[in-house]
Design brief:
Blueprint (H helix, E strand, L loop, with lengths): L9 H8 L7 E11 L7 E11 L9 E8 L8 H19 L9 H11 L1 E7 L3 E6 L1 H7 L8 H6 L9 H9 L7 E8 L11 H8 L6 E8 L5 H7 L3 E3 L5 H14 E9 L14 E4 L3 E6 L3 E7 L7 H7 L3 E8 L4 E11 L5 H21 L3 H12 L7 H12 L4 H16 L16 H7 L8
Helix pairs in contact: 2-3, 2-9, 7-8, 9-15, 11-13, 11-14
Length: about 450
């Protein structure tokens, strides 16, 4: 008969809970009751879950990058910025991976080391799509010889052509996905998909619907003719509105990829059955259960309001101590890790939760303003802002009022959309300089030191 010890050590408990090793995140969850919007607005029982990523050694193992570059005719004016972006991205990766050697590297050395260290493909598209370059590491994985051209040569030869068949580029990218890898698909475009089998938002949703949760799409928009709703359908759009934001933005993307160790992270917070009629559905008010990528120094907060504006102490007590879970795919172990945690009891809603609520609510409002700019919607937003009486809300109210005052400026609104996407996903790496977002991770700050920004 198997004998089970009556008392287990902490190490034995850890081994039972996490046979593949401890999780690389710290998750804490508290349930508060009261005004999370301040001054008797937005009252409710709210579960606030904080996810803090630990720092892990950087690596490019089991990570794949696919660039989709628009070469349609309208790209002619922004092509210098695109070339600049691609060279900046190469520099960012090499700077992060080889910080000591980077300052003395020639362009030829940068090309070689980037190709050796990173699994990369470049697909260009206009009327059709074609793969123009694959890194040495990509070719070695697939045991094929595809491209002998230097990375910088391919980038400098990018040229504007005819129409925009983004769907064909995504379909070609799907044929190159590597199993057991996390894949970042980075799109650089200035316009709208106007030819091919996929030109509507719904058709693009259908195209990527069955893609693995380990695949992340990052659309970069150039110029003022982009379709922000389409790009946001594919992923969190980043608007490149000037040469100045290319370096910090793309360094942020590179830092996420290089320092990431987990992808497809999702929170599971069970809803308890309650014997009430017509109880409001639980809803996310800060972030969402889809945490996404775990990378060094990242922090993420999820706020779940359990039952609208109702305060139900007897229900709250049932949630205290309740077991929850964060799952993610560990890139090193190539397995799904489950990080278990319990909901703790909290007291009054702290100011930091109110701050995060106002930031999240502001992001939702700004994303809505990009889609709907008629007077009735603007009046609705203004009435909502009148309820924001908490002092913490003042800065966010000013942000929204500034956007409304510049609602007819398309370039301004695209930049706002990009900023709001970064705020909504709580990803400071992608935020434009000066926005109200958490501290950028240390890898980004390091990447910007002695950074070589090529001008075309």
């Amino acid at each position: 008969m198997l004998k089970i010890p009556l008392k287990l050590s902490a190490a034995q408990i850890q081994q039972i809970l996490y046979p593949d090793g401890p999780p690389k995140v710290v998750v804490k969850s508290k349930l508060y009751s009261g005004c999370y919007g301040g001054n008797n607005t937005n009252v409710g029982d709210i579960i606030v879950t904080d996810v803090t990523c630990k720092n892990e050694p950087i690596s490019m193992e089991n990570k794949q990058i696919i660039f989709l570059i628009d070469e349609s005719g309208s790209m002619e004016d922004v092509m210098p910025a695109v070339r600049n972006s691609m060279l900046t991205m190469r520099n960012a990766f090499v700077r992060l991976l080889l910080p000591a050697d980077f300052p003395t590297m020639t362009e030829e050395m940068l090309d070689v080391r980037f190709s050796e260290l990173c699994t990369v493909s470049i697909i260009t598209f206009s009327a059709t799509a074609q793969c123009k370059w694959q890194s040495i590491k990509e070719q070695s994985i697939k045991e094929q010889n595809y491209s002998t051209s230097a990375y910088s040569e391919v980038i400098r030869n990018l040229a504007a052509d005819t129409t925009t068949n983004l769907g064909a580029a995504l379909e070609l990218a799907a044929t190159k996905f590597l199993p057991d890898n996390a894949t970042w698909v980075i799109i650089l475009t200035d316009g709208k998909a106007n030819v091919g089998d996929h030109t509507t938002h719904e058709s693009f949703r259908t195209l990527i619907r069955n893609w693995s949760s380990r695949i992340k799409i990052i659309p970069l928009g150039y110029g003022t003719e982009i379709d922000p709703e389409l790009l946001s359908t594919l992923g969190s759009m980043i608007y490149i509105d000037s040469e100045e934001i290319i370096a910090p933005t793309l360094a942020g993307i590179a830092a996420e990829i290089v320092t990431s160790y987990g992808v497809a992270a999702v929170l599971a917070i069970p809803r308890l059955s309650v014997e009430y009629e017509k109880l409001p559905e639980a809803r996310d008010v800060i972030g969402s259960v889809r945490v996404g990528t775990l990378f060094n120094d990242r922090s993420f907060t999820h706020g779940l309001v359990l039952h609208g504006t109702l305060l139900l102490p007897e229900v709250v007590q049932r949630y205290i101590g309740h077991g929850c879970c964060l799952t993610y795919y560990d890139l090193q172990r190539k397995t799904t890790v489950r990080c278990r945690f319990q909901i703790q009891g909290g007291n009054a809603v702290p100011d930091e939760v109110c701050e995060k609520y106002f930031a999240a609510s502001t992001a939702r409002i700004l994303l809505g303003l990009q889609k709907n700019r008629d007077l009735s919607y603007l009046d609705l937003i203004r009435r909502k802002l009148e309820d924001w009486q908490h002092p913490i809300a003042n800065a966010y109210k000013a942000d929204v009022e500034h956007v409304i005052a510049n609602i007819t400026d398309q370039r301004h609104m695209l930049a706002v959309h990009s900023m709001a996407s970064a705020m909504s996903s709580q990803n400071a790496n992608y935020a434009a300089p000066g926005t109200q977002t958490p501290t950028v991770n240390r890898a980004v700050r390091d990447a910007l030191n002695d950074f070589l920004l090529y001008s075309q």
